[in-house]
Amino acid sequence: MAGLIGILAFDKIWNINKFLYYGLIGVQHRGYTRSGVSLLSEGGLIRTARSSVAPEDLEFGELEGWAGIGYAGTSNYPIQSEGISLAIDGVIKDQEVFVKELEKDPVEAVKRNKPTFTFVAITKDGRIIAYRDYLGLKPLSIGGFGFDMAIVSSEMTSMNVIGGELRREIEPGEMVIIDRLNVESMKLFSPEKNYCSIEYIYQARIDSFVDEKEIYSLRLRIGEKLAEEYPIEADCVVGVPDTALPFALGYSRKSGIPMDLGFTRTGSPIRTMLASDDFTKVVGIQLKLNPIKTAFFNKRVVLIDDSMVTGTTLKNTVFNLRRLGAKEVHILIGSPKLTSKCPYGVAVPEEKELIAANLPDDEIAKVIGADSIHWLSLNGLYSAIGHRDLCVGCMTGKYPTR
């Protein structure tokens, strides 16, 4: 999982480092344990800074330039050679070989490798090269800042942050090459359209627009589907911030059960599914899920979350709700069961770590201390999204490239 951004000013008088910095913060929800930027300055000099911190803590130092790329994720990108710097969203093999091929001939490099990852690159001759994987697993969009800059980004959210606007989504299998005089688009592969289901359920921000779908409205429909599939007698519905709040709102509207805001946050958002170690996961849970006692005391609660990986987050949360006096806690998950590792870079671990792959529902409920637990059905997911052009490999074990 990663957030990518590329910005190119059509006039070299611009210094785009602050645009790049704040634009990168606009996609840091996609990954925050590593970050990096590469900026192109006069004379074809590319300078790169990388850090094992979130983008908001990345030290730009004296880096300046009129074009550049940024990365927020879990790897040590961007990767730089003499004439190009590259950041990817996905999984790459032989990255040094690919970078050299890309530097020599971008079109031929992509045609030869047919990558299942999405990337943005900056070259020393003043081009941004952006490619979206032919399966459509990773989103990528193009936009602009007036007539002054071109922007490519994983999501429109980074464009909005810096006052830019979305022009369109880049299609699966499409490459876009931008320089100061031209924006060139070419379809290198026919799109196979296996959009990542996790993008809709969890990864994309709720104010985003991915693969022609408005994420907020889609997540409301997921909540409505949960209400249709699992009508539960309860006193309140609570969503786990932030992703599951629209699920809870949709469930509440469909069921007529009042929705409560059951948690308050401490500090900056931490997405525990993306955390790289157990300590960060536990601390992240406490930071983002500080429960409000009056929302739960002496109540039968429907608690909705976006996914369940190991069960650590929900076990801790249910314990705290019981401690605050909740009479019943029924868990609903706004996705089908996660049962298989993702080979394309989504943070779904090995099967042995996935609680839904190893225990029946009643045992899972006992482990996390809930009265019941239910998952959105696969058909419910298809219905909420409105099509079946999805990769659901982490839920079924069947992948587009296998």
Automatic annotation (TrEMBL):
Top-level enzyme category: transferase
Residues that bind Mg(2+): 243, 305-306
UniProt cross-references to SUPFAM superfamilies, sorted A to Z: N-terminal nucleophile aminohydrolases (Ntn hydrolases), PRTase-like
UniProt cross-references to Pfam families, sorted A to Z: Pribosyltran
Biological processes annotated in GO: 'de novo' IMP biosynthetic process; purine nucleobase biosynthetic process
EC number of this enzyme: 2.4.2.14
Cofactor note: Binds 1 [4Fe-4S] cluster per subunit.
CC cofactor: [4Fe-4S] cluster; Mg(2+)
Recorded superkingdom: Archaea
Residues reported to bind [4Fe-4S] cluster: 196, 342, 391, 394
UniProt entry tagged with the keyword Protein transport: no
Pathway membership: Purine metabolism; IMP biosynthesis via de novo pathway; N(1)-(5-phospho-D-ribosyl)glycinamide from 5-phospho-alpha-D-ribose 1-diphosphate: step 1/2
UniProt record similarity statement: In the C-terminal section; belongs to the purine/pyrimidine phosphoribosyltransferase family.
Record protein name field: Amidophosphoribosyltransferase
Taxonomic path: Archaea, Thermoproteota, Thermoprotei, Sulfolobales, Sulfolobaceae
